[in-house]
Amino acid sequence: MDDTLCCLQEKFVKDLFVSEGLGAVIDEASYGYAKCSMEIEPRHCNALGIPMGGTIFTLADFAFAVAANQRGRDVVTQASQVTFLKSAKGKHLTAIARQVKDGKRICFYEVKVTDELGTEVAFVTINGYVVRNSDEK
């Protein structure tokens, strides 16, 4: 396992809401990119038996956080927009976050959430705010 992924896993396991509550894991990561996933369990589902929107959004927000919080930067979600496309048909969700714009204080990401059957579940855009950048004095 590469050092970046190992360090990110150590950092984000402390995000108990995601690591314990959601059961999400980091599959791949590099600056401006992350792939995170989770198994769908009954606790993640609504009364219709499908994953709750909050579950899907939280996975997407987590992928954004992993992609953006690298290279000594501390980035938080400033604003986001989620569009739910279809109900998940499978038992596993994956969120892939990709950087669209990287600025000194503001960054912009798109996140696609799918299931293992290829169902496009959600599309999320996130504006991030850079709280701290280690390059700054």
Descriptive account of the structure:
With 137 residues, the protein is of the alpha+beta class. It is 24% helix and 44% strand. The chain contains three helices and six strands. It has helices spanning 3-12, 16-22, 53-68, and strands at 25-30, 33-39, 73-84, 92-102, 106-115, 120-133. It has a six-stranded antiparallel beta sheet. A hairpin with a 2-residue loop joins strand 1 (25-30) and strand 2. The termini are far apart. 31% of the residues are buried.
Strand content: 35-45%
User: How many DSSP H or I helices?
Assistant: 3
Question: What strand order characterises the main sheet?
Answer: 1-2-4-5-6-3
In total, the number of strands is 6
- Provide the low-confidence segments as ranges: none
Order of helices and strands: HHEEHEEEE
Q: Note the main sheet.
A: 6 strands, antiparallel
Task: Using the alpha-carbon principal axes, give the shape.
Answer: globular
C-alpha Rg (nearest Å):
15 Å
